[in-house]
Write a structure and sequence with these properties.
single chain; 3 helices; elongated
């Protein structure tokens, strides 16, 4: 369960860092803080929902990609 949560959290963090690199702006800890919190939310949701899943690479990859999607989706909706 913890590995799935970390994968989802990591996906959100990677998405946030890639967005920052693409923007070519100076690093803003306030903006990254929002990404960090959205990623924690994604990790928590996937940790709770993963009780019925067997741990494996397909599940971890899906959690990673979904964590990135949660961060990107909430960012696009301007939810901070």
């Amino acid at each position: 369960m913890i590995w799935i949560a970390l994968a989802a959290w990591g996906g959100g963090i990677v998405a946030g860092l890639l967005g920052w690199l693409k923007s070519r702006e100076p690093f803003d800890t306030k903006k990254f803080g929002a990404t960090f919190l959205r990623s924690l939310l994604a990790g928590g949701v996937f940790a709770v929902g993963s009780n019925f899943l067997d741990l494996g690479w397909p599940v971890l990859t899906t959690a990673f990609l979904a964590g990135a999607g949660v961060d990107a989706g909430l960012h696009r909706l301007n939810i901070k």
